[in-house]
Amino acid sequence: MTLVNLDINLEQAVNQFxxxxxxxxxxxxxxxxxxxxxxxxxxxxxxxxxxxxxxxxTQVKHIRREEQLDAIRDLxxxxxxxxxxxxxxxxxxMKLAFWYKLAQGVQSGSxxxxxQHHKLSPEARSVLTALEAMGFxxxxxxxxxxxxxxxxxxx
Length: 155
Fold this sequence. Notes:
With about 160 residues, this protein is mainly alpha-helical.
């Protein structure tokens, strides 16, 4: 496979991700962070420990557990919320770090995840297949592109 084909597949995956339902997007993000999460620390080391990123994560963490997923869904969908407005001020590395912290919270059980019974749509499954076939750098690029516009309250 050539580099050009990887770029096309990456762009197609990002476009399909953007068209997926919010729950599919969140499920794909959690999967992606399971695969490349540790590398995010090296890709955005300062952002991981940023006070702004930590404060935003703490806001989500302190929402009543049964409302956390709705707050994360609102953020992903670009609803005009306090969390979304703060999120839009983050640079791409801080956004990566924020989603990394959320993924860690999902793994530890402190953040509510997409329901276990959620089934990915066929389009989201094709994104998952593309992600699994990508190399590490392409997976990180996917995450950067996918999360950059999440929470955009202007669209």
